[in-house]
From TrEMBL, chain A:
GO biological process: phosphatidic acid biosynthetic process
Protein name: 1-acyl-sn-glycerol-3-phosphate acyltransferase
PANTHER family in alphabetical order: 1-ACYL-SN-GLYCEROL-3-PHOSPHATE ACYLTRANSFERASE
Pfam assignment, any one: Acyltransferase
Pathway annotation: Lipid metabolism
Transmembrane residue ranges: 15-32
Start and end residues of each Phospholipid/glycerol acyltransferase domain: 44-165
UniProtKB/TrEMBL annotation, chain B:
Organism whose genome encodes this protein: Roseibium marinum
Domain of life, per lineage: Bacteria
Family: Belongs to the CDS family.
Family matches, as Pfam families: CTP_transf_1 (PF01148)
Residues that span the membrane, as ranges: 7-27, 47-75, 111-133, 145-166, 178-197, 218-237, 243-263
Pathway(s) per entry: Phospholipid metabolism; CDP-diacylglycerol biosynthesis; CDP-diacylglycerol from sn-glycerol 3-phosphate: step 3/3
Assigned GO CC terms: plasma membrane
Protein name: Phosphatidate cytidylyltransferase
Catalytic activity: a 1,2-diacyl-sn-glycero-3-phosphate + CTP + H(+) = a CDP-1,2-diacyl-sn-glycerol + diphosphate
């Protein structure tokens, strides 16, 4: 049973994402390929490239409203939990799981929150590039995701490539400029028992997804 | 009484769409080939005609807002498919902001400003906004492409909306809404007619370097069909006499063809097949309104010169 406060948070989250959906529909416009491959039931891991603050919200907005409570974006604690207001919004409205970057506290596994959520049958949204970086340029993937896949070998890992969100709202900008955005959902990857091989497969999937369409140059 | 003519015209369009849908259904049942795109395209026509009818019946203001939205979607499609500079994000933002302003002039009936706002003021302002980025690499290309997009997606299309506020004349009391209906119906019908004649009889290519599927047979068949239709419908919803109806009946299909191949040239340069995926079976919104970018301003000035 959900307690009163939790139910209120879920209502707030739904209301927030209805608003986000309308804003996305008018201001951005999404071209989603193979939406049916997005997992809505956990344990599962969605792995996406990271260009913009819009990434998380757009991926969440693709999910059915009733499933939102089971979808958990994973984000850096030092950024999203840096003030009490941010922390409250991140936890209750965005549904974020915090990960400590840089490993300050060695006594606790930084991925513990992720393990717990997968154990509860949640769907994680992960950005293994670690940071948004230069918009619309992919950087190397961090290997944390392979630890999660190893611990939960039955959870499908679904790569999602997005293009355009970094043009609409790149790092360091507050001005949202409308662009149509592409979201390509790849085939799920399953754990085969080798971390390096897993990361290579993931990189190959992203490489294939990112060349599925010729994108307009943007310098 | 003026409303009645327009209502009959709308009923006629729905009837035509119903007949076309039955034909498409019959073809898709009989043909061994995959006709899903044709079916999707027909289904999208129902949605588009429904949106148009509703906004048309509710009010002029709503119709103007719908045209502003069409301009916004088209410009967004254009900016999303052309090369842009990161430094110009703010310039793009100003370009988008010109849409509500331009359509406000339409709503206000302020013709003088409507006619110069984009070709004069935005034309002068965008390069200025762009130079503020202090990045001159690609400046010319950027200013040129942004201005062309604004002319095509906003300035041209807003002429269709300006028809709406033209008053009724002594010759015909359907006024602006009648003229808009005439323009949109013939422009879109001509697209379908040119496509259909091309599919049925197409042999000799007309502009193979730009659009290999366009043929002389399709073009001339479309012009002839639209011409006849213009003569038949002009007395209902426009103040045109027969000579002017004949000129409009040639102007719309020929200009529509030019608009169509102009956007095709753009797509070919960029190496894309469709401008987007907003309208199932049709492609993007620019794919749908390409002809209108040429017919709207030309038809508007033709009408204004002779009747207003």
């Amino acid at each position: 049973m959900l307690c009163h406060a939790e139910r209120r948070h879920l209502m707030l989250q739904k209301a927030f994402y209805i608003f986000v959906r309308i804003a996305i529909l008018f201001l951005l416009g999404l071209n989603v390929r193979r939406k049916e491959q997005l997992p809505v039931k956990g344990p599962a891991i969605i792995v996406a490239n990271h260009n913009s603050h819009l990434d998380t919200m757009v991926l969440m907005a693709l999910m059915p409203l009733t499933k939102l409570k089971d979808i958990k974006p994973v984000a850096a604690a030092d950024y999203f939990f840096s003030s009490p207001i941010k922390a409250w919004l991140s936890e209750h409205v965005l549904g974020i799981i915090a990960v400590e970057r840089g490993g300050k506290d060695r006594s606790r596994d930084p991925l513990q929150g992720c393990y717990d959520a997968l154990g509860d049958g949640k769907v994680l949204i992960l950005f293994p590039e670690g940071s948004r970086g230069e918009p619309e340029q992919m950087t190397d993937l961090k290997k944390g995701v392979s630890y999660l896949a190893e611990r939960f070998p039955q959870a499908p890992v679904v790569p999602v490539f997005t293009h355009g969100l970094g043009k609409a709202l790149p790092r360091g900008s507050f001005l949202l400029v409308p662009f149509f955005c592409d979201i390509f959902i790849g085939e799920p990857i399953t754990w085969e028992g080798n971390r390096i091989q897993f990361m290579n497969t993931l990189r190959d999937r992203f490489a294939a997804l990112s060349t599925e369409k010729t994108f307009a140059p943007w310098e | 009484m003026n409303l009645q003519t327009l209502h009959w015209a709308l009923i006629g369009i729905w009837g035509l769409l119903a007949v076309a849908s039955v034909i498409v259904y019959a073809i898709s049942r009989r043909s061994p080939k995959n006709m899903s795109e044709l079916v999707a395209r027909t289904r999208s026509w129902w949605v588009m005609v429904a949106i148009f009818t509703i906004s048309f019946l509710v009010s002029n203001t709503l119709s103007i807002v719908v045209f502003a939205l069409i301009s916004f979607l088209a410009l967004k499609e254009y900016f999303s498919m052309i090369p842009t500079r990161r430094a110009d994000r703010r310039v793009l933002f100003w370009a988008y902001l010109s849409i509500p302003v331009q359509y406000f002039w339409v709503y206000d009936g302020y013709y003088g400003m409507f006619a110069v706002f984009i070709p004069v003021y935005m034309f002068l302002f965008l390069p200025f906004a762009s130079l503020l980025t202090q990045q001159t690499d690609g400046f010319l290309k950027s200013v040129g492409t942004l201005n062309w997009g604004l002319m095509l997606c906003v300035f041209s299309i807003s002429h269709a909306a300006f028809l709406l506020i033209l008053p009724p004349t002594a010759a015909n009391d359907a006024g602006g809404p009648g003229l808009l209906l005439f323009l949109i119906f013939l422009t879109q019908f001509n697209d379908v007619a040119q496509y259909t004649w091309g599919k049925l009889l197409g042999r000799r290519k007309i502009v193979p370097g730009v659009s290999p599927n366009k043929t002389w047979e399709g073009f001339l068949g479309g012009v002839a069909t639209t011409f006849v239709l213009a003569l038949l419908t002009a007395p209902l919803v426009t103040p045109f006499d027969m000579a002017h109806a004949a000129v409009a009946g040639l102007l719309i299909p020929v200009a529509g063809f030019v608009g169509d191949v102009t956007v095709s040239a753009l797509k070919r340069d960029l190496g894309v097949k469709d401008t987007g995926s907003l309208i199932p079976g049709h492609g993007g919104i620019l794919d749908r309104i390409d002809s209108l970018t040429y017919t709207a301003p030309l038809f508007f000035h033709f009408t204004r010169y002779f009747y207003y």
